[in-house]
Each structure stands twice: as C-alpha cells, then as structure tokens.
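Figure 3 (text version): structure tokens given as input.
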C-alpha cells in the first residue's frame, strides 16, 4: 500500500479554527435574543462541530497527528464540545469498525425473536437526534456509574461494545466526563447563556450528527469492510466535513487520513446523495434471515 503521510500541521490548524469557531458560537448563544438568531447559531454549530467530529474521528484512528500524545490531546479537546469522553468514543468507534454489518451492528435489520418495536425505536431515534441525546446524558451516567454495566441491557450493540471495552480506560473516561460537565457548566455560567439557547445550539449539532450516523451503512452489503457507501453533498460541505462522506473508502482503508480518501477505490463508482440516503432510511427495518457473525466478538480494544 502507498504510504499516506498524516497532514499533522494542517490538522492542528484546522482543529484550532474549529475550536475557536465553536467557542464563538456558544458565546453568541448568550448574546442573541431572538429565536431566528438562535436557529442560525444552531445550524452553524451543527456544521462546524460535524467538521470537528470528523477531526475527532481522525484522532480515534491515530491519524490526526503522528505523535500519540498530541493526537489524543487534540482529540480529547474536540470531544469536549461533542460532548463525549474521548476514550469512550474511541473505544466505541474502533469497535464499530470490527462489528460493522454483523448481527451485532445491524441497525436496519430485525431477526426472528427480536423485539421489532424496540429496534425500530432505536432506528428512528437515530434519525431524529435521540441517539445524540443518549450520548449527551451518558456523561452523567459514566460519572456516577463508572462500572458501565447498565448499557448492556439496552441492545445487542451496547452489549458488544462493553465486551470490547478495555477496563484500563474506566477511570480516564470518568475524568473526561467530569471535564465535559465542568466545562459546559462553566461556559453557560460565565457567558450567561440561557439554558434554552444552549440546548438548542448543541442540538443543532446533535440532530445532524445522529441523523447521519447510519446513513452510510443502511442497506449495504453485510461485510465488515465493504458494508458502507460513499455519499456526497455540496463540494464545499464535503471539504468542511473533511471528506467524511467518502465512507466506503474509509472503511476499506481506515488508517488513511481524510485528505486522501477521494483518491481511494474506483473513481468511476457513483456516489449517492446524502440527503436522499437519509430519507431512504425512513423506510424502516427490513426482515433478515442471513446471520453474519462478529468475528471479533469479545476482543478487547487496546
């Protein structure tokens, strides 16, 4: 394989701009007085934080910066504005690459014996932003229940996640959750942000992020590497979101930095539209009889 150099300086510069922009938007939430202005700030935070999420995503794969310490520090700072404990997110995302399209992570399918209503609720919750709300509240959960046992009762994916979670990160995750809570309480208090404004702006990101979480996988081939699709939006937005929508290319070679993703795969292969793929997901769950084993079940992620 070709050696793709990590654009470390570019990544640090982009992350700095992202951080400053997010702080400015949250500061603005305490200054505006009309709901249309709050809506614009929410949209802005949705666009910028999804860009920061793409950079955070680079950190989880160790390709934000060649130095592990710098890579994780920048990732942890960006994760504060998600907000989510960085090492919890890292464990979950790397696990996603191991479980992708197996029975342990088939959000769009239901099998005989499964609770179709509950699984449908999880899918439509993802489409409407509730997945992000759950993660938002997880900060409180991991702070007061660091054993992380309760999520296993939610669904099969949560159980698989906990089976792969490395116990050495428990205290670190708890500390990161505390940092999230203190930071956001501090910003709301210091900048006198009305709670309704704060929640609206944060959900501007939460809805967009949650709605896109399975859009690249819905109805795709049940293969851990091929079970994803490349999608497109406006060219400028593709750049702002750091080529994150070249998702099949990413899953096929997850250690290739964002800058080079469009160069991978077959350039003639058509890319669907992100918005169309999102609305297709509203068709809901499909019955399935083919079982695909998670070959990495129980593997602890380092």
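Below: residues designed for each position.
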């Amino acid at each position: 394989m070709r050696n793709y150099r990590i654009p470390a300086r570019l990544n640090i510069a982009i992350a700095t701009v992202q951080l400053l922009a997010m702080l400015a938007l949250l500061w603005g939430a305490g200054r505006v007085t009309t709901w249309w202005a709050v809506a614009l700030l929410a949209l802005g935070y949705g666009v910028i934080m999804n860009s920061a999420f793409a950079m955070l995503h680079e950190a989880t794969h160790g390709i934000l910066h060649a130095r592990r310490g710098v890579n994780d520090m920048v990732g942890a700072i960006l994760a504060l504005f998600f907000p989510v404990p960085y090492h919890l997110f890292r464990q979950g995302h790397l696990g996603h690459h191991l479980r992708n399209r197996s029975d342990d992570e088939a959000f769009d399918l239901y099998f005989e014996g499964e609770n179709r209503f509950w699984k449908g609720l999880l899918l439509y919750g993802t489409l409407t932003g509730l997945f992000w709300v759950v993660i938002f509240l997880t900060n409180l959960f991991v702070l007061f229940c660091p054993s992380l046992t309760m999520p296993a009762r939610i669904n099969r994916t949560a159980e698989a996640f906990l089976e792969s979670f490395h116990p050495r990160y428990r205290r670190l995750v708890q500390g990161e959750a505390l940092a999230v809570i203190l930071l956001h309480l501090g910003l709301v208090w210091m900048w006198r942000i009305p709670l309704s404004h704060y929640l609206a702006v944060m959900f501007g990101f939460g809805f967009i992020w949650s709605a896109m979480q399975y859009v690249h996988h819905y109805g795709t081939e049940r293969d851990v590497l091929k079970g994803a699709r490349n999608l497109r939006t406006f060219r400028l937005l593709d750049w702002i979101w750091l080529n994150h929508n070249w998702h099949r290319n990413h899953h096929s070679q997850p250690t290739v930095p964002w800058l080079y993703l469009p160069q991978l795969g077959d350039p003639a292969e058509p890319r669907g539209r992100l918005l169309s793929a999102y609305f297709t997901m509203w068709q809901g769950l499909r019955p399935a009889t083919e079982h695909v084993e998670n070959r990495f079940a129980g593997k602890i992620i380092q």
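The chain has a mean pLDDT of 93.
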